[in-house]
Amino acid sequence: MAPPILPASSCLAPIKSRVLAYLIDLLIGIAALFLGSQIIKTLDTTNLLSIFGIFVAIAIVLGVPVYQAVLLSLTGQSIGKKMLKLRVVTFPEASNSGFARAVFKRWWLPSLLYLIPYLGWVFWMADCLFIFNKNRRCLHDLVAGTMVVQLNPLSDTSVKSSDTRNIEPAE
C-alpha cells in the first residue's frame, strides 16, 4: 500500500485548532448522551415501541464514539478534526496512524488513565500542558507515536508523506 498523500504545505496543527476540534467532538458526544437520555426518559417500557426506543437511544449513545473511532482509524480525522482540516498521522513518517495508534493508544488508553483517582487528574493536566512544547505533541501523542497536522485545503500540490516540510522531530 502506498503512503498517504499530504499537501506540501502540511504543518503542525495550531493549538487553537486542536482545542476547537476537541470541543466540537466533545459537544457532539454530549449531544448524543443528552438525546439518548431524553429518549429513555420519555419511554414506557410496557409496550414494544418503547423497547425499540431503548435500542434507538443505545444506538445513538454508542454510535457516536464508534463512528469517531472508525473515522480516526481510516482517515486520521474525527468530526471536529475534519471540520478544521486537521489529521492525526504517525510521527515522524506522517502516514495514516490506524486503529491501534489513533484510537487505542491515543484515545482509549489515556481515557482509562484519566479515571484513576488523583493520578488521572495529574496525567490529564500533564497531557494538556504538553501541547505547549516545541513540536505540539501532547502526552497521548507521545504514547501513541502520533502528531496532528494542519491540512491546507487550498494547496493543489501534493507530495508523498516522506516529504514532511515544517514537521520536524524534537531534538
Description of the structure:
The chain has 171 residues and is mainly alpha-helical. 55% of the residues lie in helices and 11% in strands. About 7% of the residues have low confidence. It contains six helices and five strands; from the N terminus they run E-E-H-H-H-E-H-H-H-E-E. It is elongated, with a radius of gyration of 19 Å. Strands 2-4-3 form a three-stranded antiparallel beta sheet. It has a two-stranded antiparallel sheet with strand order 1-5.
Q: H/E element string?
A: EEHHHEHHHEE
Beta-strand segment tally: 5
Strand order of the largest sheet: 2-4-3
Q: How many H/I helical runs?
A: 6
Give the C-alpha Rg: 19 Å
Strand content: 5-15%
Low-confidence stretches: 155-166
Spatial shape: elongated
N-to-C span: 30 Å
Question: Any key phrases for this structure?
Answer:
two-stranded antiparallel ribbon; 5 strands; mainly alpha; 171 residues; 3-stranded antiparallel β-sheet; 55% helix; 6 helices
Task: Provide the fold topology.
Blueprint: E1 5-7, E2 11-12, H1 15-41, H2 48-75, H3 79-83, E3 86-90, H4 98-114, H5 119-129, H6 139-144, E4 146-150, E5 158-160
Antiparallel strand pairs: 1-5, 2-4, 3-4
Summarize the structure.
The protein has 171 residues and is mainly alpha-helical. The chain has 6 helices and 5 strands; from the N terminus they run E-E-H-H-H-E-H-H-H-E-E.
